[in-house]
Amino acid sequence: MAWIYLIIAGLLEVVWAYSMKKSEGFTLLAPSVITLVTMAASFGLLAVAMRSLPLGTAYTIWTGIGAVGAFILGIIALGEAATPMRLIAAALIVSGLVLMKLSSTH
Q1: Domain definitions of the chain by residue range
Q2: How many CA atoms lie within 13 A of 101 on its CB side?
């Protein structure tokens, strides 16, 4: 279950990052509330996952899902650039996540 909690926590990180962007510096109520609620849920699920997963593994996977997810969402929903260098950088992050998972004994 820890891995499921961790994946959901990472996906919620993408949601709160996107909502934070849409909140325009916390000046818009709805995206600001979504940001705070999903942030709390993401941190809470990360904490639960860390009960049985190593800190380095859990935190790396959580931030990696958030980083790559926000990158993809930025391209799809916000029209951000998908340059070759940015795509290579995202692929390297995903490679690191796979290696981290493969090296975990949990």
Answers
A1: 2-103
A2: 15
